[in-house]
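Below is how a single chain appears once it has passed through the pipeline. First comes the sequence as given, then the structure the pipeline wrote out for it. We keep one example in the README because the format questions we get most often are answered faster by looking than by reading.
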Amino acid sequence: QVRIVESGGDSVQAGGSLRLSCGASGYRVGSGCMAWFRQPPGSERHEVAMIRGKEFTRYATDVEGRFTISIDSGKNTLDLQMDDLKPGDTAVYYCAADRRNFCPTIFEGFNYVGRGTQVTVSS
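Resulting structure:
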């Protein structure tokens, strides 16, 4: 049974940094497609960053240059380093994983998803 659990969410001030981590038991990170999504208050959920295999990455335009997605094969985790955080980054962040060699375009399309972790950025 696969279990996806996010951690690392917190409240920070604008300009600060956070590192989110996604633990994936029963799933080997780097073997398929993994992604971070976020859902701001009152808004829809959308993809923030994606990694296919161990190297191919893609970022949403509003986080590119500030966020970095990476995998830690030793810990079997997917991480999201978030720097220069802005109030607009406030959201619940979700981790998603898929065993296939392509990345679904929507959160609900992934094989496995987590329950989310809250990130709050104050001005």
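The two ends are 41 Å apart (CA to CA).

See the next section for the split statistics.
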